[in-house]
C-alpha cells in the first residue's frame, strides 16, 4: 500500500517537476552514506528516481566510515564547500552516540550541537540549501530497550530543533524507522527489518531512506 | 487521589493484617537503599507504616553505595544469609548500567542475569521469600531521551522475567516512575519530580517506593 | 641463545623429572587460552614438552573467549572443581581491563581482587596447586604508550601480590613480554612481535608462554 | 638545590632581559589553567616572576574547566585570535584522555592531532608564537600503573612531535612531573606530590609549572 502510494507520488512528480533545473546535491555523512553509493544503496536508488523523474541533478556521495559531527566539520571545506553544491543532506549522529560505548570517544551533546551549528552556518553562508536527518537506529527493538535508545532520542531532538531554528529541511529517519518497526517487527528483533546489523541499511532500509529523501528533495 | 486511595488501602490493611506474624525483612541494594534508612528514607517510612499497621516485623537496611549485582553476590553470605531473614527485597541495577558510562565498569546484560539468578537460587534455597524491584530511573525525562533509558529498560525487562520465572514478588519501580512522571512532569525535567539528582529519591520518590513496597510486602 | 639455554634446561629436566608422577593440569582463562589448544597453541606446545620429558600429565584447556575474572568464578564449579585437577593455571585480566574501553563493562580493580581471591580460596580449599599469570599485553609498544598500559600494570601488580600472599606460583608474562619487546621491537611496533593483533599470541608468543609455564610447572 | 639554581637563573634573567619589550601572553587551556589565575596559581606566580624581572608583559588566563582540544578550537576566535596576543601557551590533553573513562566522550588520537594542528596553523598564520605543553598527569604513581598512563604518554608524544614539526616551544610537563615524582614520591602515592587530586596542581605543582614556563617564555 505504502509502495503504491509512493508510486503515485512518483508519477505525480514526473509531471510536475521542472526537468530544466538540475542541481548538485551532496550527501554528507558516515559509513551509512558511504555505503549509499553501492549498488542498491540509498544514493544509487535516488539517482534512479531522479533519472525516472527526468531530473539531471548530480548526486554525490560524501560518506566516510566512523565519522562523527566534528569529522564532517574538519573535512567540510574539502569535501563540500569547494565543490559548490546547491543542496547538502547531512546524515550524522550514530557514531557520536555509539562511540561512547565502543571507544570512549563519543561526542558530548553540547559539543555535538556546537559543531552541527558550525556546519549549518558555514554552509548556509555559502547559499547552500540544507536537509538534516536524524540518526535512524542502533538496534531495531520497538520497546525502547536498545542500549543507545535514550541517547539517540536526545541527539535526534537536537537535530529536529536545529532544523527548525535554522530553517533547514528535515528527514526524521529516527521517527520513521520506529514507526515502521512498530508495524513490521512484531517479534521485537534487534536487526533485520531495516538494517543488516542494527545500524547499516538493508534493502528495505535503503529503499525507505531513498523515498523519504526523494520527497524532501522534491519539495 | 492516589494518596487517598492509598490511605484507604492502609486502613483496610490495619484491620486485615495479622499482627502476630512478625518477620525479618532485609532491603538489599545500593546507595538508594543505603539512604533508605535515613530520616524520610523509604525504609524509615516503611517502618512507620508497619508500626501503624500493628506489625512488629524487623526491617533491616542493607544498602551500600555503588553496588552492582555482583557486589550483592559477594556480600550475600555476610549481609543476608547469615542473618536468616524471612523476606529479602532486592533493589539493584542502576549502577550496573550507569557505571558503563561513568567508569567503564558496568555489568554485561548476560552476566547481570547470571549473578541475579545466583542470588535468587541461593536465597530461595534457604527458604527466603524474594521481592525484586526494577531500577527506577537515571533521569526523569518522559520522552525516552534520558541517556541510559534504553539500557535501563533492557535490565528492567530481565528483572521482570526473572521474577516471573522464579516466582518472586515484583515491584516494578521503572514502570511506576515513568507513569508518575508522565502525569506530573509536563516540562520534561530531568530531575526533581521523584529524584533529587536523576537517581536518588526525593521525598515524593521515597514515599512512592515505600507505598509500593508496602503493598507488595502485605500480600 | 635463549632457545639453546632452554634446550639445555629441557634436557636437564628429562633426566631429573620423575616420569611416574602424572598430574591433571587445567588452564583456566579467556580467548588466549581457548586458542592455546589449537595446533601451535601454547597448551599444545606444552603437551609436546611434557611428552618429550616423559611426563604423562593430562593438560586440559578451559579457556572461553571474552572471559573476565567473574566469568571464571561463575564457571569454576563446572569447569574446574568438578574435574578434580591437581594444578590450575589461571590466565585472566586482559578483558577486565580491555572491556572498560570497548564495552563499558570492564572490572573495577577492587572487585577484580575480590573475585580473584574467591577463586584462589575455593581452589586451594580443594587442595589444588595454583599458578597465576599476569596479563601479557594489549599492545606491544615499549615506550609505555599502549592505551591500557597503566591499567594492565595495575592489575598485574594485584596478581603478583595475590600470588605472594596466597603462596601460588607465578608466571609474570607482563614482565617477560615487555623485556622481550625491549630487546626485539626496536621500531616500537604495536603488534607482530609476540602477538598477532596486540593481544593474541603469534608463534613466538605461544612459544614464550609455553616455555615459561613449563619451567613453573616443573618446579 | 633546584630552587637555588632557579633563583640564579631568575637573577641572570633580571639583568639580561630587555624590559622594554612587553608582550601579550595568553594561557589557553582547561580547569588547570582556569585555576592558574587564582592566588597561588601558576599564572599568578608567573605574573610575580615577570614583575620581578622588570617585564611588563600582560599575562591572560583563558582556561575553562572540562575543555578538550576541540573546545579550544571552538572558542579560539573569541578567546585568543580576537585579542591579538603575541604568545599563546596551549595546555590541553588531560580531558581528551580522561573523559574516555568518565563520560565516554574523550578524543580519538587522530582527531586530537587534527584539531591541534588546526589550532597551530590558525594561530601561526596570525603571527602568534606558540608554546605547547604536554599533559602532566592523571595520577602520580611512578611505576606506570596510573590507569591513563599509556594514553597520556601517547598524547604527550603527539604533542612533542607537533612542537617539533611546527617549530613551537615545548614545556614537557609530563616528563618533568614523572622525573620529579621519581625523586620525591618514594611511596608511589597517587596524589599529593604535585597535585591535590591526581590532576589539579597543588602549591609545588603550580610552582614547578610556573618555573618551567618562565624559562621557556624567557627564551
UniProtKB/TrEMBL annotation, chains A, B, C, D:
Q: Which residues form the signal peptide?
A: 1-18
Keywords in alphabetical order, please: Signal
> Origin organism of this chain?
Lacihabitans soyangensis
Please list the GO biological process terms of this entry. lipid metabolic process
Keyword Signal included in the entry's annotation: yes
Boundaries of every SGNH hydrolase-type esterase domain copy: 27-207
The parts of the chain that form a coiled coil are: none
Report the protein name in the record.
G-D-S-L family lipolytic protein
InterPro entries named in the record: Ester_Hydrolysis_Enzymes, Lipase_GDSL_AS, SGNH_hydro, SGNH_hydro_sf
Q: Which GO MF terms does the UniProt record name?
A: phosphatidylcholine lysophospholipase activity
The answer on whether this UniProt entry bears the keyword Signal reads yes
Amino acid at each position: 500500500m505504502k509502495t503504491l502510494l509512493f508510486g503515485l507520488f512518483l508519477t505525480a512528480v514526473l509531471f510536475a517537476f521542472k526537468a530544466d533545473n538540475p542541481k548538485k546535491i551532496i550527501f554528507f555523512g558516515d559509513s551509512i552514506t558511504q555505503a549509499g553509493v553501492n549498488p542498491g544503496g540509498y544514493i544509487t536508488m535516488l539517482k534512479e528516481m531522479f533519472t525516472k523523474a527526468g531530473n539531471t541533478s548530480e548526486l554525490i556521495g560524501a560518506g566516510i566510515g566512523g565519522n562523527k559531527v566534528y569529522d564532517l566539520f574538519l573535512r567540510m571545506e574539502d569535501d563540500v564547500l569547494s565543490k559548490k553544491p546547491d543542496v547538502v543532506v547531512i546524515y550524522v549522529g550514530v557514531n557520536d552516540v555509539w562511540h561512547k560505548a565502543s571507544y570512549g570517544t563519543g561526542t558530548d551533546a553540547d559539543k555535538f550541537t556546537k559543531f552541527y551549528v558550525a556546519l549549518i552556518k558555514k554552509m548556509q553562508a555559502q547559499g547552500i540549501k540544507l536537509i538534516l536527518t536524524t540518526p535512524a537506529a542502533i538496534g531495531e527493538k520497538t520497546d525502547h530497550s536498545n542500549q543507545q535508545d535514550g541517547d539517540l532520542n536526545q541527539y535526534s531532538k537536537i537535530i529536529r530543533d536545529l532544523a527548525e531554528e535554522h530553517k533547514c529541511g528535515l528527514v526524521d529517519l529516527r521517527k520513521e524507522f520506529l514507526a515502521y518497526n512498530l508495524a513490521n517487527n512484531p517479534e521485537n528483533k534487534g536487526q533485520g527489518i531495516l538494517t543488516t546489523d542494527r545500524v547499516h541499511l538493508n534493502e528495505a532500509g535503503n529503499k525507505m531512506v531513498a523515498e523519504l529523501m526523494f520527497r524532501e528533495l522534491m519539495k
